[in-house]
Amino acid sequence: MGPTEREIKLLSLKGILKLRAEYVSEVSKIEDLVKELKIKSENHEIKEQEYTDAVIILKETKELIPLATEKVKEMAEDLRSIVNGDHTEALDRLLSEADEVCSL
Predict the structure, then answer these.
(1) What are the extents of the domains in the chain?
(2) Which N-terminal residues, if any, form the signal peptide (predicted)?
(3) What tens digit of pLDDT does each residue of 44-81 get?
(4) CB proximity list for 91: less than 8 A, separation 6 or greater
């Protein structure tokens, strides 16, 4: 027997929460890199294009966070709609995490 609709939605929500957290972590790392590359670019240690590319990557990664947040909201709502009061501790924690992410 395959996974239930609830299990699929639960795993999907877990996955998008993890992906969003990775985007947030990457933004922090890329911001540090951009600062470093800006200094190197100003000192002519690297080509300006390397710095410019890093800035573009940072911008694009930042744009993914609100998209992932919106998907978290949608998936949490979908999951709540099929739970019908049948909550487990793990489900409650996951939905709580989703609510926290959406309120940021």
Answers:
(1) 5-103
(2) none
(3) 999 999 999 999 999 999 999 999 999 999 999 999 99
(4) 10, 79, 83
